[in-house]
Specification:
It is a single chain. The two termini are about 40 Å apart. The strands form four sheets. The protein has a six-stranded antiparallel sheet, with no helix packed on it. By secondary structure, it is an alpha+beta fold. The longest helix is centred in the middle third of the chain and has 21 residues.
């Protein structure tokens, strides 16, 4: 486990590697154990059912879930795991913190631009880029290039952070994807979209795909600060 409460569990029984953030924001402080034919199955659920556990699988890649199953045929080990996890959660309530940038608005926008990842698998690639329009920190162009089976599509979104509602933000986790999303104030369709160089429809949702839960939390917090500072 790292100083910031990150840890990994290698489960040979289910051949899956989990990367967990053991914090009061993520895991409940209770475990459920039941007996099956192979011994004891221990289920750890996330707080609020949020998909904040990252599962890395060699065949299927990365996906997210809201529970984790551990297995043991030793009752004493089960009792130890229960006690150990509860202790870890309690300790992490005190030490866990996000790594957020400090300084001027320009520096925080620069940090945000540097943390937006690209994605690629066998069939699809997604390139994301955030640029400041005319060098102004409160006027952005968010560009997404999606390539599938030799065909590509480019969408550009004209973002003015001061038109976004800082209280509408959420981290949305579905299947293999994590997005940080903010709606416009009053859900007005104030975000202009350019599709493959041609004017498209306006939208009220700004959504950035992120590769890690931890990174998504950091981006979410930084975005909220930028939105407020741009008003």
């Amino acid at each position: 486990m790292t100083d910031n409460c990150d840890c990994q569990l290698d489960q040979k029984i289910i051949m899956t590697l989990y990367n967990m953030l053991l914090t009061y924001l993520i895991l409940m402080s209770t475990l459920n154990a039941k007996v099956n034919k192979d011994g004891y199955e221990i289920k750890i659920k996330t707080k609020g059912g949020l998909n904040y556990i990252t599962e890395l699988n060699e065949k299927n890649g990365q996906k997210f879930s809201n529970d984790l199953n551990l297995f043991s045929n030793n009752l004493e080990k089960v009792r130890y795991i229960d006690k150990a996890v509860k202790t870890i959660i309690k300790d992490c309530q005190e030490k866990y913190k996000l790594t957020l940038p400090e300084g001027t608005l320009d520096k925080r926008v620069y940090w945000l631009k540097s943390k937006i990842p690209n994605f690629k698998n066998e069939n699809t690639s997604i390139l994301q880029k955030l640029e400041t329009k005319s060098g102004e920190s409160c006027k952005w162009i968010y560009k997404v290039t999606t390539a599938t089976s030799g065909k590509s599509k480019v969408n550009e979104y004209e973002i003015k952070p001061y038109l976004l509602d800082p209280y509408s933000g959420q981290i949305k986790v579905t299947g293999k994807n994590v997005h940080v999303q903010f709606m416009t104030i009053d859900k007005d369709k104030a975000i202009a979209v350019v599709e493959d160089g041609k004017p498209g429809n306006f939208t009220n949702l700004f959504s950035i795909q992120i590769d890690e839960i931890q990174r998504a939390k950091e981006v979410y917090e930084v975005m909220r600060g930028i939105i407020n500072d741009c008003k």
